[in-house]
Amino acid sequence: MSNKETDAPEEKGERIAKVMARAGLCSRRDAERWIAEGRVSVDGNVLTSPALAVTSANTIVVDGKPLPGKSESRLWRYHKPSGLVTSHKDEKDRPTVFQKIPKELGRVISVGRLDLTTEGLLLLTNDGELARKLEMPSTGWIRRYRVRVHGTVDPKKLEALQGGVTVEGVRYGPIEASLENAEGQKSANTWLAVAITEGKNREIRKVMDHIGLEVNRLIRISYGPFQLGTLRRGEVDEIRSHVIRGAISSEKPSHGKGFAKAKPKLNSIKHKHNKNKKGMKKPDHADRSRKA
What we know:
A hairpin with a 2-residue loop joins strand 15 and strand 16 (226-227). The chain is 22% helix and 24% strand. The protein is of the alpha+beta class. The N and C termini lie far apart (79 Å). The protein folds into 2 domains: 11-66, Structural Genomics Hypothetical 15.5 Kd Protein In mrcA-pckA Intergenic Region, Chain A (Roll), CATH 3.10.290; 75-291, Pseudouridine synthase (2-Layer Sandwich), CATH 3.30.2350.10. The longest helix is centred in the first third of the chain and has 9 residues, at 28-36. Helix 2 (16-22) packs across helix 3 (28-36).
C-alpha cells in the first residue's frame, strides 16, 4: 500500500487562545493577555504572541500547569446580587461573583458582565468559546431589564430611543423602553421595562442619564431565551445541555439595523415579561423591589 493510503490525516491546528478558551481556563481575550504576560508555554517554549496554531500533539502549560483537556460544555443561570464585581480579581479588593458562587462549579467565566450595582441574571460557563458565541450581538438576542429611575419620564423620549441614540460620541443601537405601570408615572421613582441587544458598557445608565433620568436600580430579567424566573439572589441553576443546544441552533442573526426580525416587540409583551416560558409567577425580588 502507498504512504497516502496508510498515513493518518494531518490534524488541523487551532489558535492557542481558542484552545485555552475551549478548555474553560479563561476567555479568548484573557488567553491573549496571559500569553503577552509570558504565562503560557508550548513544548517548553514561552510564548510572546498568540499567533500560533497548536494540535493535540503539543504540550501546553499555563502558569506551570498542563492545560486541562476539553470538558463537556456547561452553562448556569446565576442571580447576581448588587455589590459584586463580575471579575475573578478586583484591583480594589471588592467582593467578586466568582468568590461567592459554589466551589463545585470549578473554573467558570461569565457571559458578558453586569456592573457592580446591577442585579439579576448572569450566565456562567466553563467554555470560553461558548461564552464568546453567546456574547456576540449577531445572535440578535434581546437582554431585558427592569429599571428604576428617578426623575420625570417623558414617554416621547423613551419612544425616540427605538431609533438608537448617540451619547458622548458613542452610538447605541435601538433601545425599547416603556413604563411598567400602564397607568403612567405616579411617583418620582418609576419602574421601566427596557430591552437592548448590544449591552455596551453601562449602556442603560448612560442612555437614561442622557434623557434626564437617574438609574437607581437595575435588574436583568432575561438574556435571549434564558430567564431569571424565580431564581433567588445568590442562587445558581444549571441549564440542561439539550436546552443549550436548542437555544444555539435556533438563534438567528439580526436583520440589518434594529432588533432581530423574529423577536417580538417589547410593547407587545411588556405586561408579561415577569413570567418565564413555564408561566412562573413574578420572582420574589420583583415584589420586594416595588416597595424599595
